[in-house]
Every structure is written in C-alpha cells, then in structure tokens.
Write a structure and sequence with these properties.
alpha+beta; Rieske Iron-sulfur Protein; 2 domains; four-stranded antiparallel β-sheet; three-stranded antiparallel β-sheet; 6 helices; 17% strand; elongated
Length: 278
C-alpha cells in the first residue's frame, strides 16, 4: 500500500470515528430533547436596571406637556425579539448538522485526494510506470519449466500474468507488429505480459491450470493462455503491456502502455485443453 492510500485510509478512519462520537452524543441526548429556555427574574432585572441605569435627561420645560405623562421604559421593552428558527436550534440539531458537515468534508476531501492521485503523473515506480519483473532467463525458466507444461507467472507490481509466446506464431495473429513479446532473440521462447483485469467489467482473472487458460469468475469470460478471447461477454482479448529487455537482462513491463487487440479470428494456441474451472 503506497503513502497516498495510507493517508486516504487514515483520513476516512478519522472521519468515521468523529462521526461516530458525534452520533453517540446526539443519541444520548434523546429524541425528546427540548430547547433550553431560561426564566425571567424581575428582582434581578430591577437590581440590574438600578446599577446600570442611564443618566436622566432633563428636557426643557417648554417642551413638557403636563397633561401627557411619560410612561416608564421597562427592561422587557428593551429585549430583542428572537425568531422561532433561532430559538428552535437545539443541541441535538447542532450536533446533527455538525456530524453531517464533518462527513461531507471528509467524503469530499477523500474524493479530491483520489482524483488528484489519479490525475497526478507518477514520476517513478509502481503501477502505471515501467516495472522490472526480474531476470528474463529466470522468468522464462519459471514459465516454461522444460517438461512441456506452461506455468504462468504473476507479477503483482505490474498486475500482469507472464505467459510464453513463440515468435513464429506472431505473423497473422492479433499481436503482429505490436511490442508485446520480448526475449525471442536467438530462437528462444518469448514472454508476454497480460493484464489480469477482465476487459468485460474489470474483475481479476485467475488462471485455470486444467483448461490451460484464464477464466473470469464474475461473468464467465474465458481466454486461452495467450489471452485470446474464447467465450463469454468480453468484447475483445485480454489487454497486454508493452515489454522490453534492459541492458542488465531484466524483463521490463511498461504498465503505462496498455495495448488492446480485437477478438482473435485465428487463435495461436488451443483452448480448452482440459476441464474448465468455472
């Protein structure tokens, strides 16, 4: 798991813990919680008014009207009205809105990080770049043990199956002219790297040793050991990656270069060669 995935997982975990804590507090508050309303104390109001009473303003005698006495201004007249909406914001509503806000921020933040991780170019290493699978000779010996059998080798870093491919089978095939085979120099058996993702809906496709092919467990698409389509809802062959051999003799899988090929009209290898795994 890379640093980006770890950070996203930690962020989501923190958001879940905070949301759970807020929900627990709101639940303990109870469904019948009422607004917190204080009681007015006239004696306290009088004491406060006498302590903080504003200075008297003496009006000129000429403006006073004897037969129209002034009514005293009480504390109740100075209170500002509170709307029903402001008064109705209880602690439960506040906590619910806070939980919703935290969840929204966490979700949008995680989504934004995922989008940046998808869009941002990967400078080195990992899937989406060139992956060194290992020594070409060692990989070839593992894929073709020498007893006539074929044992595909899975490379997790490249999400790819390595399978053998003879150079003589390339002309007229779906792969002719594509850089999908490496290591055929000197008449040796070359290798191909098949992406393990089914081209139907993206499920991981395991190998089936008994049928000598790859069979998708999700919807039943089947391919031979060269990744050529045989049956099922898949629209084409398995996708494959471009290959090269570096100066040190290592097989390099370019997972940033995905090559698509149509359904093979002429297959380069027979399938099935035994019972299906599905």
């Amino acid at each position: 798991m890379d640093a980006t995935a770890i950070f996203i997982t930690a962020l989501i975990a923190v958001g879940v813990v905070v949301a759970a804590g807020v929900f627990a507090v709101a639940w303990r508050r109870g469904p019948k919680a009422a607004p917190i309303v204080g009681e007015f104390d006239p004696e306290a109001a009088k004491r406060d008014a006498s302590t903080h009473a504003p200075p008297e303003v003496v009006e000129p005698e000429s403006e006073l009207v004897a037969d129209e006495p002034h009514e005293p201004i009480t504390i109740e007249d100075r209170r500002l009205p509170v709307s029903a909406e402001d008064l109705g914001v209880t602690r439960r509503k506040f906590l619910n809105r806070a939980a919703l806000g935290l969840f929204g921020i966490g979700f949008l933040g995680a989504l934004g990080i995922q989008m940046l991780a998808f869009i941002w170019p990967k400078l080195k290493g990992g899937f989406g770049s060139k992956v060194v699978a290992g020594r070409l000779d060692d990989l070839r010996n593992s894929v073709v043990p020498g007893d006539g059998s074929v044992t595909p080798v899975f490379v997790p870093e490249a999400q790819a199956w390595l399978v053998p491919m003879e150079e003589s089978l390339l002309p007229g095939s779906s792969f002719e002219g594509l850089p999908v085979v490496a290591g055929t120099e000197g008449g040796n058996t070359g290798l191909m790297a098949l992406w393990q993702k089914c081209v139907h809906l993206g499920c991981r496709v395991p190998e089936c040793e008994s049928s000598q092919g790859f069979e998708c467990p999700c919807h039943g698409s089947k391919y031979n050991y060269h990744g050529e389509y045989d049956s099922g809802p898949a629209p084409r062959n398995l996708d494959r990656f471009a290959l090269e051999v570096d100066n040190a003799g290592n097989l390099v899988i370019d997972t940033g270069t995905v090559l698509e090929t149509p359904r093979a009209t002429v297959k380069t290898i027979a399938y099935p060669q035994g019972p299906s795994c599905l």
